[in-house]
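Field log, afternoon session.

UNIT: design team B
ACTIVITY: writing a sequence onto a fixed backbone
BACKBONE:
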C-alpha cells in the first residue's frame, strides 16, 4: 500500500514526499499539482504542461472518455498517455463529480476501474459518493456506507499496477471524516483524497476545509498520501499543505481563464479591470492587460490559462522551498493577510497546534513573530511542554531585562514573549533565537505568561519572581498567584 510513498521533509503537518507510480515508471515529488485536462477541450496541450510548466502528473475524467463515443475507442486503442501526449503520471476520476452534480451515473466501481485499467490510467478512482457539506447526519452516514462498499469493490478488482484512490468522505462531520479515514487507511488502496471539498472551496470556507482535512488525517496513517480534491487556487496551497495535504488538482487555471479571471497568490483579478500585470511570468512579461484583451477570445483564454498555470506552479515550488527551509507557517501567515477567509483558515489550523507539533521539526531557521497568531504556533506549545524537563532552582528570578549585577536569587532566567521563561544558556537554541518586534503584542505576552504558569506547575516548591515589561492585564491574569510580580517599567518609582 503506502510503500509507494516516502516522506523526506516535514514542517508543521506539511511534508515533501516521493510518490512512486509503477505503471508510469515515474516518481512524483509532493506537494504536487495535477492540472485537470478535459479530454474534449485541450486549453493547453498536456505535452506543454510537462515540458514548460513542470507538471509531473495530471488528472482527467475516465467517465467522460467512456461516455464520449468519438474519443472512447481511440483512447482504448492508443492508450491514455499517447492520446494526451503526456509521458508523466495520469490520474483518472471515475464520474463521482458527475454523480454529485447530476444525481446518477450509469457505471459501477468494477466497470469504471476496469475501463481505467484498459486505457492505461496510473492512479484510478472508484465510484464514491461525494456528500456535500451541511447535510443531515443520516444522509452523511448512509452515503459513507456506499463509499465504503466502493472501496471494498476496488480492493477486489483487477487493477494491475495501477494505484487506486480511497476517497475519504463524511460531509462536515469531523468524527465521520476521522472514521472514514481510519477505514480507508485499513484497505490495501494507495492514495487518499479528501472528497467533496469543492463546495467549501468555492465558498471560501477555508476554516471548514482545514477542520475536515485535520479530521481525516486523524484517521489516516501518518504515511498516507493525501489528495485534496478540487483545490486549485494558489492562495490556499500553503495552508492546505501545512494542514497535511500532498496532492492538488486544478481546473481553476482553465475555468477562470474562460471567465476572464487572472489568478494571484492573494486572490483573483478580472482582466477587464487590470491596467498592469503584477507578475513576471512569460505571459505577463511579454504582454500588457490591454494587449491580452485585444486578442480573440480563444487566444485571450489561452494566455490567461498559461499565466494562471505559471503562478500556480510557482506557488507549489514556493511551498516546497518553505518546507525545506522550515518557514512554512510564516508563508501561511503571509497568505492569511491576503484574504479574511484565509485568516480564518490559519486560525483554524492553529487550533490543532498540538497535532502539528508531532511532526514539526525541533530545529529550523529563525522563528519570525509577525502576527499575534504566531503566539499559537506549535513551537510555542512545545517550549511550554518541555519546561517540565528543566531543573528549577529554589529561588528563581524571571526577567525580560538583563540580569541584575547583584541579586539574592539562585539563578536568573530570561523571559521572552511568546515563549516565556528559559535559562540563558538556551538563548542560542531554536526557537528561542526568534526574531520578535520591539513592540510585543498582548497575544505574545499572554503566551509568555502561559509559559511562566507551565514552569510553576512543574516546580511548585520553587519561589519564583517575574519581572515583566508592562504586560497587559490578560497576561498578568494568567500568571499564577504564588509568583511575585514586578513591573520593570515602574520598578523603583
Amino acid at each position: 500500500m503506502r510503500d509507494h510513498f516516502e516522506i523526506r521533509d516535514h514542517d508543521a503537518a506539511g511534508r515533501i514526499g516521493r510518490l512512486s507510480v509503477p505503471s508510469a515508471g515515474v516518481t512524483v515529488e509532493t506537494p504536487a499539482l495535477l492540472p485537470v485536462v478535459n479530454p474534449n477541450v485541450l486549453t493547453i496541450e498536456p505535452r506543454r504542461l510537462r515540458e514548460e510548466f513542470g507538471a509531473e502528473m495530471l488528472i482527467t475524467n475516465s467517465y467522460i472518455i467512456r461516455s464520449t463515443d468519438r474519443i472512447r475507442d481511440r483512447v482504448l486503442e492508443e492508450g491514455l498517455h499517447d492520446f494526451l501526449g503526456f509521458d508523466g503520471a495520469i490520474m483518472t476520476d471515475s464520474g463521482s463529480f458527475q454523480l454529485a452534480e447530476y444525481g446518477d451515473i450509469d457505471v459501477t466501481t468494477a466497470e469504471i476501474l476496469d475501463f481505467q485499467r484498459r486505457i492505461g490510467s496510473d492512479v484510478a478512482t472508484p465510484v464514491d459518493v461525494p456528500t456535500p457539506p451541511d447535510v443531515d447526519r443520516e444522509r452523511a452516514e448512509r452515503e459513507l456506507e456506499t463509499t465504503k462498499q466502493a472501496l471494498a469493490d476496488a480492493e477486489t478488482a483487477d487493477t494491475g499496477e495501477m494505484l487506486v484512490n480511497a476517497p475519504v468522505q463524511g460531509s462536515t462531520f469531523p468524527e465521520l471524516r476521522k472514521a472514514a479515514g481510519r477505514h480507508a487507511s485499513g484497505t490495501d488502496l494507495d492514495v487518499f483524497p479528501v472528497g467533496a471539498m469543492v463546495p467549501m472551496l468555492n465558498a471560501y470556507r477555508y476554516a471548514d476545509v482545514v477542520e475536515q482535512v485535520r479530521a481525516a488525517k486523524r484517521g489516516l496513517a501518518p504515511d498516507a498520501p493525501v489528495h485534496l480534491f478540487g483545490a486549485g487556487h494558489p492562495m490556499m496551497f500553503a495552508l492546505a499543505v501545512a494542514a497535511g495535504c500532498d496532492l492538488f488538482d486544478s481546473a481553476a487555471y482553465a475555468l477562470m481563464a474562460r471567465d476572464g479571471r487572472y489568478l494571484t497568490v492573494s486572490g483573483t483579478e478580472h482582466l477587464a479591470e487590470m491596467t498592469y500585470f503584477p507578475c513576471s511570468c512569460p505571459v505577463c512579461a511579454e504582454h500588457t492587460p490591454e494587449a491580452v484583451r485585444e486578442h480573440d477570445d480563444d487566444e485571450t483564454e489561452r494566455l490567461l490559462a498559461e499565466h494562471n498555470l505559471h503562478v500556480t506552479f510557482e506557488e507549489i515550488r514556493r511551498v516546497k522551498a518553505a518546507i525545506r527551509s522550515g518557514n512554512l507557517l510564516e508563508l501561511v501567515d503571509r497568505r492569511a493577510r491576503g484574504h479574511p477567509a484565509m485568516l480564518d483558515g490559519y486560525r483554524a489550523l492553529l487550533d490543532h497546534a498540538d497535532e502539528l507539533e508531532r511532526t514539526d521539526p525541533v530545529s529550523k531557521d529563525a522563528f519570525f513573530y509577525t502576527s499575534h497568531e504566531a503566539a499559537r504556533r506549535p513551537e510555542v506549545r512545545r517550549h511550554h511542554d518541555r519546561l517540565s524537563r528543566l531543573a528549577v532552582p529554589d529561588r528563581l528570578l524571571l526577567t525580560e531585562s538583563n540580569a541584575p549585577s547583584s541579586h539574592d536569587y539562585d539563578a536568573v532566567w530570561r523571559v521572552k514573549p511568546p515563549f516565556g521563561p528559559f535559562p540563558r544558556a538556551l538563548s542560542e537554541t531554536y526557537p528561542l533565537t526568534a526574531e520578535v518586534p520591539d513592540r510585543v503584542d498582548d497575544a505574545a505576552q499572554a503566551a509568555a505568561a502561559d509559559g511562566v504558569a507551565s514552569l510553576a506547575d512543574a516546580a511548585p516548591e520553587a519561589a519564583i519572581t517575574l519581572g515583566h515589561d508592562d504586560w497587559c492585564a490578560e497576561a498578568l491574569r494568567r500568571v499564577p498567584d504564588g509568583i511575585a510580580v514586578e513591573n520593570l517599567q515602574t520598578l523603583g518609582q
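LOG NOTE: The first helix runs from residue 46 to 51.
NEXT ACTIVITY: expression trials, pending approval
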